[in-house]
Amino acid sequence: MTPPFDPFIAALAAGTAALTCHGSLSAARWLSESRRRGSATLIAGNTAALGFGLWAACALEALALAAHGWPYTDVASCLVPLVLACAGQLCGLIFVSGREPDLPAIAGSALSFTAAIAETQWSTLQSDGGLLGSTAARAAALGWLLLAFIGFVAGLWLTLGRRPAAARVPRLVYVGLSTGLAAAILGLGAGVLLHGPLPRCCSDGQVGARFLAVALASLAAAALIIRELVGCFQRKLDRHAGRSQRDLAEAHARLHHIATHDPLTGLPNWNLLKSRLAAALADRHQPGRTVAVAAIDLDRFSDINHSLGHGVGDGVLVEIAHRLEAAVPAPHTLARVGGDSFELLIDSVSARLEAHAITSAMLAALEQPFIVHGEEIRVRLSIGVSVCPDDARRGDDLLAHAEAALVTSKRQGGGRVLFFEPSMSDSMQERLALENDLRRALAAHEFEIHYQPLISIRTGRILSVEALLRWRHPQKGLISPSSFIPLAEQTGLIVPLDAWVLREACRQARAWMAEDGLNVRIAVNLSAMQFRCHDVLDTIISALSSAGIEPRMLELELTESALMIDPERSASALKMLRSMGVTIAIDDFGTGYSSLSYLRRLPIDKLKIDRSFIRDLPTSAMDESIVRAIVSLAHSVGLDVVAEGVETAEQLERVRALDCDQWQGYYCCPPETAAQFAARLTDDAALSATGIRAALTRLLAQ
Ligand code: C2E
Ligand code: MG
Ligand code: MG
To answer: Which atom of ligand 1 lies closest to the CA of 468?
Structure first.
């Protein structure tokens, strides 16, 4: 018997089934791509919509074929297929959710979706029992299920196995697949209905079957469409999140590169070198593994920068970096760690041997000159190497030892590679200890000033007193300035030191004036660095005003080289000081440029001839003629001449004969403390009793 057949409801059933199958495939794809693996809400939402769709499709088919009757007799018979439909869909989605789908996952998922169809149809039509009684019905059912399974495998394979989006499967294929799967669902139901006894019709005619079908199909369509829309929206969000994450990862990588590389040369920077060194040292347990560090510095690179400008200097640095890098095989690291400083990290079984080979290659790489703006520039390297574990085991010690070897290489003239030896770090450490000691001494007020007079040759009167710095070290005793001033100049500590001397000397001059009635100028040595400070004038003026002495009571002693660094600025600063009344003296004349023609243009008052010319005066005709020439030239431009380091009566006699204006030396007065100096003056009321007058009288009598 042919069951009553409503094509309208059947069409609704087919549409719902096709929509559901399409939904299953698209949900599987989306959940598989989704990064939010295990998001229960997402899976549950899809499961509910798809389960309801499948259930509705089966119910609609039954409604279409089974005498316009509603297939479910009670709530339980209605809910069981719904639950089974949902369970099957859930399993199908879980198989592929949040993972790269492989064949077993696809097969599992397809099997679950197929089982969902079978169970839903079965339990929908089961209500009357006795279904699939005939072999033909069983065979037909099996055929439809096989078709569904193959359809799902194919659909899932195409959907999930062909990512990314570039290899998209045409939409028509999905439509075809969904239609085929819908046919399998309906075919299965139809087969059961046609071959088995009809399910009982529960329709009482009050609710029209078509009305029921439209309502059911609409509900299912709404659920599936909502699912699809939410899916699309989520996919967009996912894509956006993916893009943001990619952008973030790219930005992070860029920032990391900036933080670990030198912007000029692109080489690793100090941070990266330190972390690679730490990693190499941590890895060193492997037998025979050694690590070497080479500190590399360009010799006299600042000359290139100064003479050709920083732009050219940068270009040369980049070229140098390329040449050096080419000499370094992987996996070793060459880093730029400062202006013209590089560090090389060698991580190898035989680091010492490799260090020899690589550093020699680096020296050779710079043998060819650089051509910049048509000029040939030659650059040399100094390299210091230390090896772990021979020289040190800690990273900081290795770096310090390489630096010590580099400093020694530079001291020996540069242009060579030196491997670390313990004696090298001793001298570095001494220097470092002295520097720390100097800082401490400044804070602990361990410095004092000794005073030495400058005396007029003609009258024997003290014209000025030079302030000479001394360090009263708690352990080492009195230290002369030649032992610490060069280091103080290198470290910049000379600036606060000189400022202190200036203040203290001015204060002392005021005290002598007030307490001893001694009215002499105070002469203060000013280092080149102090003189170059932008606030040097302020420092001088504030020292004078806080001591309460006039500028004409101050003499400043500067070396030629201090004035030569920036001649124009020097000239204007000197003019300013001179206009205030400060006396300017050139110290140690004869040891520097000795360019009187240049000095003539500067507002200065006197020259102090270096004591090396005075020492052999009585016997050296050469020194005598030099001093004579200096004196006559100085006088010709109106400068006074001071002879430094007069130790004997003969020297004093010669400088007088050579027409020097003033003298200074141990012959009468070595540098003394302020108290000693004042006592010497007051002891005999004047210098006459100290021997100067006597010496002069003797001289004049001869
Ligand atoms: P200088 O300014 O040329 O000072 C004269 C140096 O010659 C002093 O050495 C002094 O003690 C020494 N001297 C004086 N008469 C004789 C002599 O008859 N025979 C011999 N052999 N030497 C004599 P001192 O005090 O050791 O100072 C050395 C240098 O240190 C100074 O040379 C000066 O350039 C620098 N200096 C001293 N005090 C200061 C200071 O406060 N600031 C700066 N920047 N430099 C200073
Ligand atoms: Mg001096
Ligand atoms: Mg001097």
So the answer is: 38
* pLDDT class of 504 with cuts at 50, 70, 90: very high
Q: SS3 sequence, 310-323?
A: HHHHHHHHHHHHHH
Residues paired with 110 in a beta bridge: none
* Sign (positive or negative) of CA dihedral 66, 70, 76, 80: positive
Predicted confidence (pLDDT) per residue in 195-208, tens digit: 655 554 444 444 57
Largest CA distance in the chain: 164
What residue ranges line ligand 1, CB within 6 angstroms?
452, 468-469, 480-482, 485, 494, 498, 501, 525, 527, 557, 587-588, 611, 644-647, 664-666, 671
**Between the CA atoms of 326, 299, 434 and 445, what dihedral angle is there, to the nearest 10 degrees?**
-120
b/e burial code for range 474-506 (CB count within 10 A of at least 16 → b)? eeeeebebeebbeebbeeebbbebbbbbbbbbb
pLDDT, mean over the chain? 84
Could you tell me the distance, in angstroms and rounded to a whole number, from the CA of residue 492 to the centre of ligand 3?
A: 21
- Is residue 253 classed exposed, middle or buried when 0-12, 13-18 and 19+ CB atoms within 10 A define those classes? exposed
Residue 410 binned pLDDT confidence (cut-offs 50, 70, 90): confident
Q: Which ligand is nearest to the CA of 589?
A: 3
Give the residue, by CA position, lying nearest to ligand 1 atom 44: 527
- Please give the CATH number for the structural domain made up of 444-701: 3.20.20.450
- Measured distance between the N- and C-terminal CA atoms of the chain, rounded to whole angstroms: 163
pLDDT in tens, 424-469: 877 777 778 888 999 999 999 999 999 999 999 999 889 999 999 9
> CA triplet 540, 545, 550: central angle to 5 degrees?
85
Among 464, 468, 587, which is best to mutate for testing ligand 1, by the most ligand atoms less than 8 A from CB? 468
Q: Which CATH code is given to the segment(s) 270-420?
A: 3.30.70.270
* DSSP string of 332-372, one letter each residue: -EEEE-SSSEEEEEEEETTHHHHHHHHHHHHHHHTTSPEEE
Q: Which chain residues have CB less than 5 Å from ligand 3, an ion?
A: 587-588, 644
Single-letter amino acid code for the residue at 66: A
The ligand with the least distance to the CA atom of 481 is 1
Confidence of residue 299 (pLDDT cuts 50, 70, 90): confident
How is the chain split into domains, by residue range? Answer: 7-225, 270-420, 444-701
How far apart are the CA of 310 and the centre of ligand 3, in A? Answer: 36
Q: What percent of the chain has pLDDT over 70?
A: 88
pLDDT of 35 above 70: no
Q: Which atom of ligand 1 is nearest to the CA of 530?
A: 44
